[in-house]
Amino acid sequence: MNPAVAANLPAAASGPWRQVPLTRPAVGAGELAQLAAVLDSGWLTQGPRVAAFEEQVARLCDSRYAVAVSSCTAALHLALLACGVQPGDEVVLPALSFVATANAVRYCGAIPVFVDIQPETLNIDVRAAEAAISPRTRAMLAVHQLGLPADMEPLARLAQQRGLALIEDAACALGSRYQGRPLGNWGDAACLSFHPRKIITTGEGGMVLTRHAELAARVRRLRQHGMQRGDRARHEARCYLPEEYVELGYNYRLTDLQAAVGLAQLERLGELVSERRRLAQRYHAALAAQRWLRPYTEPQDCQSNYQSYAVWLDPAAPCRRDALLDALAAAGIGARPAPTAIHTLSPYRPWRPDWPLPHAEAAAQQALVLPLFPGMSEPEQDYVIEHLYRSLDPFANSSG
Ligand SMILES: Cc1ncc(COP(=O)(O)O)c(C=O)c1O
To answer: Comparing C-alpha atoms, which of 144, 59, 57, 52 is closest to residue 94?
Structure first.
């Protein structure tokens, strides 16, 4: 290793930290206690814990309504339907995201219209979104990529001017802030994920946040087979309440077991986000001297929860991104590529747009995410940092 570079490294790690996963869920005794209480209660799905979980997330996100569902994919599907997206409508969305963002559009029979991202943030390029709007556009989907807020103010203005629904894919963004406020209020609806790779987890799970009473009511119906009246109202009633199915719905329920885990996780949300931000600052400091890697940056007014720590590998680096991932994997480090350029995936070939999407394609080729999770020890992080330098230095030296 180059001694000048080595001098910039935190104390080198060795020894028992051989396996550093991409993430490790921060769950423990608090979650177990909540789970036991649900099992004792006998009410296992869509009951009081789900209602309490919804109330607390709504409060934390300054949102009027919150409706829990089985995943963020389900949340996106129902939010799009509740915003009136119909077969044949167009939905403008960033080309770079997890495939679920576009899948939800297709579940509605709508047409995904992919637009490019800003390379500095990996988030939707508002001017590209505006240029893609056509008379058939019904909605825009903004993704807060890897927890970093998309530029919501101009997007909300654009949606209002053009009469479009605006939905936030906030799968990764619980605990992030935009203009000093939590995310989830800029669009007509915002969708959260509680998958184990997210900020808090319920194993699987999702939620729709909205300020519109009618939209919330429709999502509540759709998550439960189109039933007019929720289970809670029926079970708590002191008289017989008949079930009524008023439209085609789905089984997208969240269980009380999951919600109980979520409630325990929520108690630690502030601490979990602070810990992620602290570890991100450590990566920033340690990687500043690594000339082939560039972290993506927080624009003014955006505060990321660092759901993931993303870096760009310089295209001029003599090592390709996948070779770097291989080298890290060989050292037991769980780094991964950045999100996908969805239009390049085979199910999305029919919706590949006519215009180029250079930044989304470059990010899909050149960006990677590094291990970062609350509870990651400094030696674990040092081990990742050291291996990044080790993997890139031989190439750096050979290229002068
Ligand atoms: C941006 C984005 N949208 C949607 C999803 C889907 O979330 P879920 O797994 O809860 O369905 C993910 C999950 O990784 C995501 O990253």
So the answer is: 144
- Return the residue matching tokens 């939707």: 124
Distance 100 CA to ligand 1 centre (A): 6
> Distance from the CA of 252 to the center of ligand 1, in angstroms?
15
Nearest-CA residue for ligand 1 atom 16 is 98
Shortest-distance atom of ligand 1 to CA 204: 10
Distance in Å, CA 268 to ligand 1 centroid: 21
Ligand 1 pocket (Cβ < 6 Å) reads 71-73, 97-98, 100-101, 143, 169, 171-172, 193, 195, 206
CA–centroid distance, 313 to ligand 1, in Å, is 24
- 397 pLDDT more than 90: no
Helices (H) then strands (E): counts for the chain: 14, 16
CATH code for the domain in which residue 373 is found: 3.90.1150.10
Examine the residue annotation and report whether 71 is marked as an active-site residue of this protein. no
What is the DSSP-derived secondary structure letter of residue 18? -
CATH number at residue 149: 3.40.640.10
How high is the pLDDT of residue 184?
87
Report the nearest atom of ligand 1 relative to the CA of 71: 10
Q: What is the pLDDT of residue 54?
A: 98
Residue 326 and residue 371 in one domain: yes
Q: Give the active site residue among 49, 195, 198, 387.
A: 198
pLDDT in tens, 223-281: 999 998 877 787 788 888 888 899 999 999 999 999 999 999 999 999 999 999 999 99
Q: What does each C-alpha distance from 309 to 227, 276, 287 come to in angstroms? A: 41, 9, 12
Residue 135 and residue 192 in one domain: yes
Question: Is 117 within the bounds of a domain?
Answer: yes
Whether 4 shows a pLDDT value over 90: the answer reads no
Q: Is residue 24 part of a domain?
A: no
